[in-house]
Amino acid sequence: MTSTDIKPADHDTALTSVNPATGEVIGTHPIADEDAVRAAVAKARAAATTWGALSYDERRTHLLRWSSRLVADSDEFCQLIHAENGKPVDDSFLELMLALEHIAWAAKNAKKILSPKKVSPGAFMSNFAARIEQRPLGVVGVIGPWNYPVYTPNGSIAYALAAGNTVVFKPSEYSTSIGNFLAAAFAKANPELPEGVFSTVNGYGATGAALVKAGVDKIAFTGSTATGKRIMAAAADTLTPVLLECGGKDAVIVAGDADVKAAADAVAWGATANSGQTCAGVERVYVDRSVRDEFVAEVKKILEKVAPGSGDDAAYGPMTMPSQIDIVRRHIEDALKKGGTAVLGGVDSVKAPFIEPVVLVDVDESSEAVQEETFGPTLTIRTVNGVDEAVELANDSKYGLSSAVFSKKNGLDIARRLRVGATSVNSVLAFAAIPGLPFGGVGDSGIGRIHGEPGLREFTRPHSIAVQRFAIPGMALLSYSRTDSTMKLLRRLVPFLHGRHK
Ligand code: NAD
User: How many domains does the chain have?
Assistant: First the structure.
């Protein structure tokens, strides 16, 4: 049986999770209906009173205990990630490692970033003390994808928790057991905390939709742009704020002065690792004509030796979501039909549930392989005449998640011209491994940021407090007792303060 033959056992009440490489059943989870989702949110609301009242130091302790539990259980966890998601065990470990880095960063930095700050009251309000205090939102609903089933939702979960919120997490239907393992580890590490600090609700899209409507204080969604738009529309009913981490079509620019071998090495990995199922994976390359032949040959040489599989020596695993396989095939077909050439692989590389690396060159820019997110181990390479053309084509996309630039001298300058949320220079995907750097896109790639300082602020609301320290006689601006002499003084002061700029 191939993974495309697998159907859930009972779509209404239970979700059966399977190994995408073998079809073996991993686990069965009851599906949370609207009532169950509301009950989970109510429990999280009650737990928010306790969790939100803890100090940053106390929450840090709980979060770091969770990390240590995950480390202690990492063998079991990585085997589960491998089995349910398909990625190799080593890649599972790397994903867990990155998630742990983020948990630690959020836990250790929340106090510094979110503690109350004094601000200047300004000349006219100098009798006031002004401060901003960051309050947790309450309950955050996190809806996750399957491609990085730990790292990706954790970018919302760990930061929301560190900021003092409780979390109800709806893992992807393709990584439900993994999501539940993550939450169970938190509870196991922190038995003294009330239930509901970090819980899961399981199911398909309907369960996610129920979470959006369940009265949470924010929805943090990671997944496709199409679902992100549906969630934003549904959230509008209750003005529930949304953080949307959606799809991408990331471009890499290889300039004439690039280290071509290093660029090829990074691109080959960035395009095919995790079967290309990476939101910020390499999908398009714009390479300068002067180094094009060398670059293409080098990428081909590397990827010829790269093969998917489910064994220990596999470079990457199967496609996790069966329906994506047809999309990848369609993109390859469309690219070839529109004049592109496959220098490695082709339509025959699709051997469901696996797809071997495919390198397409000179693909028409209007083809689906260039315009739409492929989310497979494929890559388009287009030759350009210099950096200006490369930047123009890279930016000509409805998406704007991230990007990479290879140039010995001008990497930073080129990076600054790209309309994206993040760029790696002389590397790929590096920003995602640096917890202090925010991550998120523009355009169809989403709204808001996870990770880093903005990623903590996303899960708080600023509370501004102005405290009158003393009254200034005759300067009662916020009162009907304001006098004419106050107005005369203001009419002299305002031109002095604001009217002298030429
Ligand atoms: P998806 O949109 O199909 O599903 C994501 C989640 O949304 C799942 O949990 C699903 O059950 C849920 N869902 C589906 N319909 C819903 C609805 N109407 N209301 C609420 N929830 C609903 O995406 P996917 O296939 O799981 O993930 C792949 C996509 O995720 C790709 O487009 C990829 O680029 C993107 N992604 C983005 C990032 C990022 O950080 N920007 C990271 C990883 C993946």
Answer: 2
